Amino acid sequence: MKTVTLNVTIPTDLFVAVNESEQVWEDWLKIATAIHFYQLQKLTIGKAAQLANLPRLEFENVLATYQIPISNLTYFDIENDIAKLRNL
Q1: Of the candidates 23, 22, 59, 53, which has an alpha carbon nearest to the alpha carbon of residue 39?
Q2: pLDDT digits (tens, 9 = 90+) for 37-78
Q3: What is the pTM of this model?
Q4: 56 Cβ contact partners less than 8 Å away, ≥ 6 residues apart
Q5: Does 7 reside within a domain?
Q6: pLDDT band at residue 15, thresholds of 50, 70 and 90?
Q7: What's the mean pLDDT when you consider all of the chain?
Q8: Distance (Å, whole) CA 83 – CA 75
Q9: Residue 75 DSSP SS3
Q10: Residue 8 within a domain
């Protein structure tokens, strides 16, 4: 898989304030970005998990921790699906 490396500049005083390593920052930036694009429905849950560098189930657990639904289906979507199934 082809990848792209992005450089993000973070002031050192933030590292001191948060007291976390560069690796922890990198991991959490990936997860936060994945969550953000998932919530905007720009990434599927599978692609968001891939961006977060987590297995899908683990990414779903992260979403649950932050009380973010693992499905973007609306009540209207579900009602339409039920109506379609009734017509089979």
Answers
A1: 59
A2: 999 999 999 999 999 999 999 999 999 999 999 987 888 999
A3: 0.80
A4: 45, 46, 49
A5: no
A6: confident
A7: 93
A8: 12
A9: helix
A10: no
> What is the 8-class DSSP label of residue 81?
H
User: What is the DSSP annotation of 10-69?
Assistant: --HHHHHHHT--HHHHHHHHHHHHHHHHHHTTSS-HHHHHHHHTS-HHHHHHHHHHTT--
What is the number of domains present in the chain? Answer: 1
Please tell me what DSSP assigns to residue 82.
Answer: H
Buried b (16+ CB within 10 A) or exposed e, 29-47: eebeebbeebeeeebebee
Report which of 46, 33, 53 is spatially closest to residue 72, judged by C-alpha positions.
46
The domain of 34 spans 13-86
Please indicate, yes or no, if residue 6 is contained in any of the structural domains.
no
What is the greatest pairwise CA distance in the chain? 62
Question: Tokens for 55?
Answer: 């297995």
pLDDT of residue 88: 85
